[in-house]
Amino acid sequence: MVSLGCPKALVDSEQIITRLRAEGYAISPSYQDADLVVVNTCGFIDAAVAESLDAIGEALTENGKVIVTGCLGAREGVVLEAHPRVLAVTGPHALQEVMQAVHRHLPQPHDPYTSLIPDHGIRLTPKHYAYLKISEGCNHHCTFCIIPSLRGTLVSRPVHEVMQEAESLAKAGVKELLVIAQDTAAYGMDMKYRSGFWQGKPLRTHITELTAALGELGVWVRLHYMYPYPHVDRLIPFMAEGKILPYLDVPLQHASPKILKAMKRPAGGENALAHIRQWRATCPDLTIRSTFIVGFPGETEQDFEKLLSFLEEAQLDRVGCFAYSAVDGAAANALSGHVPEELKLERQARLMELQESISAAKLRAKIGRSLTVMVDEVDEDGIIARSMADAPEIDGMVFVDGESQSVSPGDMFEVRVTDADSHDLWGSRVA
Ligand code: SF4
To answer: Is this structure's pTM higher than 0.85?
Structure first.
């Protein structure tokens, strides 16, 4: 299995290898030992398309029998034009079709013992954290994005199924659940938020009720890809009460109303700053992460400055910034006022410079405080951990001094912060 792309694609890969193992297939660590290769592709931006096509080419050269799935698979013509020798092409989130293709080209072995796989499936993440995908697809039409045409409209997973998976992950030793979807806060909208059942009680297919139930499992629960819909306000008290992590990943993408309108962003008309103020008043320790796109078609210096002033006011903790890049098939390509490449990069650098000073000041303010951390890795140089404010892979680390022999990934303890830069923290274990 070659898995490319975002955590949502990673979960699709996990589901495919889980089913493969359940049916008695073995997963090989190398091309040479494999009878067939499944490549789960990404098709989000042109660079990801190129990376996916390269990965398919490599699998064909090294192995020869290749099934392609994932976001780029939704554009079958592009895959087949570059690699006509692939055995089959499916779109994203297409477990059944991938399995049918595998059965066709590598008939199922019979070994009843290999079907003894764990309830929570097989995961590609470390043992102590897991992504929990609660829905697939998206009902929005952001003009820079082609995900709805690749992954379809919103389809929420039944609430009991999500809770069952979360519970079996927690029982298997997972200490942190990262809740993901294309639009997490829209969970249940397609089902009109109907009630399901969990542990004999009704539970609505709604993000607030799901989050409250997840908060009872005794593990860290982190919310990603939340748009600032008014009902998100109702989640903040759970954070203030310590039921879920005081962390919100809100991809805002811009702050100029004109650009947000041109982007057709969900909740783009909401006053993000007012929400942020209110969230912080309810939960002062809240960490807010966001991403922004600069150089969107029509973005003037004035729009960009609006974005900079927003960042100064909002004092977000973590920020990612992309220079706008046209995606084949995206509606934004037809907009006028495309920003020259050089100017986009200049704006990206200006934004990151400003944000770096904000992030650095926010992290410096943690020096002297004691924080609960979760260990990610232990090596000869020491312990690498994360605090509640840090999501794996995308945020910073906490480097911990001291004896590491009896420490393992997933362990949690208190650390006194001794130093900080604009991204990471350093500290010592509190005895
Ligand atoms: S919300 Fe917008 S950016 Fe996110 S998947 Fe949907 S259309 Fe794409």
So the answer is: no
